Amino acid sequence: MLTKCVQVIENFDPKKTTVDAYVSDTPILKDKRVNDLEQKFIHQVFYGATRYQKFLKLFVTSFLYKCPTSAVRSDQSLYTILAYLLFFRLEELEVSEFRELLRCGLGTDSALLALMQYALSVEDLENWVKVEWCKLYDVDFIENEVIGKLQSFPDELLPVVEEVELKATGTVASADSSLVKTRKVTEQKPFNLTKVKPRLVPEPDVISRQVKAVPMPAHIHKVSLGDVEEEKKQRLEEHREMVKQKYDGEDGPQLQSAQRVDASEREELTRKVDAERMAECTFRPAPAKKYVRPTEEAVVRQTAGAILREDALLKKKQQNECQILKRYEEDLHDASEFHHWQQNMKEKDDMEEEARVRQRMVEMQLAREEAMEAFDAVKRKKNIMAQHQKELSHQKNLEVEMENAVELQQKQVLCQEVQDDRERARISEAHALTVKAKHAEDLRKEKEAEAARRRREEQFEMEKRKDLIRQIRALEKVPVERFVAFDPAEPPCHGLMEEMSLAELRERMKILEAQKSQEREDKRERQLTRKLEKQEVLAEKAETLGKVREVAREEAQHRHAQRKSKEVEVADRKKAYQAKCIEEAAEKIATKKKLKHEEEQRLKKELKEISTKAQFLQANAEMVEAKAHGEQHRGLEREARDRQKGMLTGQRKVNEISGKEADIRTVNRVRDIEEYKAMQGYVTQRVKQAKASQECLREDIKRANTAARNHQKSQEIRQREDFGHSSNRYMQKVQQRIGSAPPVLNRS
Q: Would the pTM of this model clear 0.85, i.e. be above it?
């Protein structure tokens, strides 16, 4: 049954399925050999282990870290199940059934013994896992329901632990045996002190954060800016007159320097004083030394890593050259002809690309002229649009000014209404101040009563502490057992394998240290030999690399000279081609300007011919002109009628819109007044409800404080009856235990 529980827990994957679906679908629980009782047990163990997964994981992980020699990491699921049964289900399962689970054969005996000892040790649990448990669960639950409940079964679990210990070690440390020598060790137990329960802290008072405006002083409306400026000017003049009277010329100090007549002497003294004062401020740095170019080459010292990297690079190049020669021997040709053709084609492509770029430059220059003409036309059009836009903006500004005037009038009316409401606010403020003063007086009385009660509680706590100190001093007077001094030559005699005394252990440690020192010296000699060999190899490689570097430098200089000559040739060719392109572009631009000038001349000639023809036809133009004027006058009359009709229609629409806007403003103003009054009523009702709620809350707090004080007082009375005096039942038990203690044997 325990094996099936382990299988169910290990096969569960929360990422794929839920707990209920897994239990209903798992094939382990569908086995016909599992009866209903066993199925129910497996089901409950799986649910409990899943529910307290974090709790059990912390316990098992800490157990594996504390006992790595005895615990087996592959049995983590078994330890999880046993920990769950031990901490949460031991009362229901009973100790006899738990013993049968330990004796079923799963897990090693040493691991089960370490698990039981670790779970029953309060000190280990507090040092290893209690702090992490308290992060997940309540402290009272951990201390009372988990650790405290398990410690309530010491008599029932002691035989189980002894049985497991006997199977694991072959001996029982707590049993009487003449074969095993045990030494009694003093056990330190903390005092069972009563922990003080925290007092109930009353809830803080609610602080009002409402900000009220201070009324405007009345003298502000009586003083204007002009009066203030006049007052400032008058005050400034008075201050000037006062300063003049205070620092009159006759009352000033009479100095000898003022009586000097020679101005040159005064200037000479001034120049000397300035020269002495500014002597330290003059900065004249020394001239910089002339740069001297070094004649000798700098010596660069290479490191071992640099030599090895350069040697590896040289070997790689040699391998590549060897591969090229080998390929040439096999194929009887190389890729040099292809590379030459490829270089020529790249140069040809570069020349074509440059020609295309120059062609594009000429086209762009021609397009620039056309763009400039188009830009001038767009500029004239935008000027006309800007004039029209200015007229529209002027009309809109006039409309906005009219709306602002109407809005200012409405705001003045609203300000008058607000000033009327402020007088009512002052009355409410005075009433609120009276209520607050009364509340403050009541609160002060409550605080004084609370302080007196706190002083009485502190006095009572001090008496309890003094009584406890007297009890501790009485316990300290109990005689202490004495032990024999430790003998380093005596073996421990615990019945373990390979036991030895401390003196023998020290001798063996000296022998091992001597062996390690000899091995260290031999290893140092071998390392020095390898180091010398490595230095010789590096010196040979450095010499070879120096020769290779010199040859490479000469080849690089030759390549640089060739490349520079080729770059100069390419630059000259580009300059010549650029000059040619510029000449072509200039010719095209000149040709286009010439054509445009010819077309303008032709247009002017045509306009001149048209004007000459018009002069010949002017004789018969009077009749045509009279007819044209008649048509124009009739058109103007029609236009005037249409304009007048449109203006009347527009004015009628404007009047209708103005009337509707006035009605809407009136309705909005009435609605705003009604909403403001409704808001005042709602706020008044909410304030009343808040005050009633505050009174109820204060009464609840008072009742809770009274109940807490009464409860704590009853607790203190009950504790005083149990632990308060030396004549209580606790002290009687302590005295009986001291009187019935066995006599102390003198080992000496």
A: no
